[in-house]
Structures are given as structure tokens and as C-alpha cells.
Amino acid sequence: MDKKQQRGARTAQKRDDLIRGYLRDCAIAAVEDYVRRGRRFAGDDDETVRAAWAGRFRETWHIFLADPRLRDLGAELDLRQIELPIERVTEEWSKMQRLGSFLFSAAYADPDRWWRANEAFFLDLLEYVARAGRQH
Question: What percentage of the chain carries pLDDT values higher than 70?
């Protein structure tokens, strides 16, 4: 690998690390919000929470990011260090991925639409970078 390729690989790694950090920060914020509101699923056993998450995802896969109950169930699983039971919702998960790919392709085809669709994400990411820079 030449120097240009090495530099590109380091840049890609930094970008990936940054995005992973941002997504983890979002997950932590969701868990903090859930805990602050009282952990309504704390009394349920692990299987009940996994089953509830899977059932709710099946119902709301197309709007899962906007579903507060699904977010809370995911936060409870995260607190318990249990992976999301994606294996229980493979059909819906695949549909969600296909929908995401379609929306990504449609937005990417129109640069103005692409920017509008991602403006909030980019602003959140910039805020995360600023916070992360102050912490290090």
C-alpha cells in the first residue's frame, strides 16, 4: 500500500470511528432519557423485553426511529447488555434495509434533497465532534 492509500485508509478509519462514536453517543442519550423517565420495563424479565421489542419492531419497522416504545425497549436491552433480537424479525429487518437503501438512492440522486434529508444528522454529528474534542 502506498502513502496515498495509507492516508486514505487512516482517513476512512477516523471517519468510521467518528460515526461509531456518534451513534454510541445517540444510544447513550436514549438510555439516559429512558432511565430519567423511570425504566418502565425494568421489572420485566429478559425474554419478555426481547419478545416485546420484536413484536413492536414487526408493527413499526417502517417508522422504528420515531417509535418511543421501541426506543425504550431497546434502551432496556442495552442497559442489560443484551443484543437486539434481530433474528426474530429478519423479514422486517430486511424490509427496513431495502427501504433505507431505496431512500438513500433516491435522495443521493438529487443533491439538494440529499442535503436537506441529512442536514439534521450532519448538524448533530458536528455537535458531537465539538463535544468529543472538548473531552479529549
Answer: 68
The 3-state DSSP class for residue 66 equals: helix
57: left (phi over 0), alpha (psi -120 to 50) or beta: alpha
What are the domain boundaries of the chain? 3-135
Cα separation of 74 and 71, whole Å? Answer: 5
Tell me the residue length of the chain: 136
CB 70 within 8 A of CB 64: yes
Cα 42 from Cα 50, distance rounded (Å): 12
Quick check: 95 and 57 in contact, CB under 8 A? no
pLDDT digits (tens, 9 = 90+) for 114-128: 666 666 666 666 666
What span, in angstroms and rounded, lies between the C-alpha atoms of 49 and 4? Answer: 48
Where do we find the cell 455537535? 127
